[in-house]
Amino acid sequence: MGKRRTMADDPHKLFDTWFAEAAAAEPNDHDAMALATADPLGRPSARMVLLKGHDPRGFVFYTHRDSRKGGELEANPIAALLFHWKSLRRQIRIEGSVEPVSEAEADSYFATRSRDSRLGAWASDQSRPLASRAAFEARYEELRVRFEGGDVPRPPRWSGYRLLPDRIEFWTDRPHRLHERRLFVRDGEHWDEGLLYP
Questions:
Q1: Which of 131, 137, 164, 188 has the most C-beta neighbours closer than 10 Å?
Q2: 3-state DSSP call for residue 151?
Q3: How many folded domains does the chain comprise?
């Protein structure tokens, strides 16, 4: 990045501003982000997940730890996120290492999910082969009966991850593909800011 520049914005505060604007403008799922992971051989995989928390520590999402993404993150705890808000003609790219959230954080978030979503977390062997939709629905029904009248606790292997950013790029569409790209790179406790050619 070269010589450190005085930042006009803190990248986390700028993210908060853009995220709030997306919440007001995007027709649905403003919190949807592409999550890219890679297996130990470097083969990439991407899918959409929902952002469930953000603060200066990082960006949080939840999943089954035995899912494909969970296995890849366990073997190679580095990932990338991409937010694309077409209505605003903006995107944010975030890269960094990944760590599990605490058990208390996972429990707290799981308790906010609808009962059906909590039952679904128990019923799904995420990313594993499924013989038929009917088999999944039967398993869901068995669990609905099992937990009827009581709480639905968090499954032991269902939890969350926090991406600890070391690069955050803010991309703004401009006419004639003369886009603006602002890149923030972490240097210890500080962020260096620079621009990239479009």
A1: 164
A2: coil
A3: 1
